[in-house]
Amino acid sequence: MHIEVPKKKVSKSAQEVFEFLTDIKNFEKLMPDNIDKFEVLDEITFKFALKGMPEIILRLKEQNPNDKVVLGAASDKLPFTLTGNIEALGDTESEVGLSFEGEFNAMMAMMIKSPITNFMETLSANMDRI
Fold it and tell me: DSSP characters for 56-104?
């Protein structure tokens, strides 16, 4: 399953956005208002829960300086990645595109597509908080 949300312009350099996204404690600032729990587990791992949803543990899997940040599920039971592609638009502006990639059966994909899309749209909208 592949989900992409529209790119978001941010009034920060690509380096500033990259540094923000690789410091995983900053993801709490991007979370939706209906967040129920957010906990940093170590330097590259955090868990969060939205009201009415199970806890999700994300780990920083890959980083390409000022260009890309990839978070992935800490568990292999439901393998997926959340990728932030950063594109410099100048010295003080950049654009962030979020994409989700996961392997799910048809029933699971149907159930989670809408909540994941909404979650990613919120993360993208909240990029202004960087």
Answer: EEEEEEEEETTTEEEEEESSSSS-EEEEEEEEE-SSS-EEEEEEEEE--
How far is it, in rounded angstroms, from Cα 122 to Cα 114?
12
pTM confidence score: 0.92
By the 8 A CB rule, do 127 and 8 touch? yes
CATH number at residue 46: 3.30.530.20
Tens digits of residue pLDDT in 27-49: 999 999 989 999 999 999 999 99
Domain count, the chain: 1
Kindly state the tokens that stand for 117. Answer: 């899309």
The range of the structural domain enclosing residue 38 comes to 2-129
Start-to-end C-alpha separation, the chain = 28
CA–CA gap between residue 119 and residue 121 (Å, rounded): 5
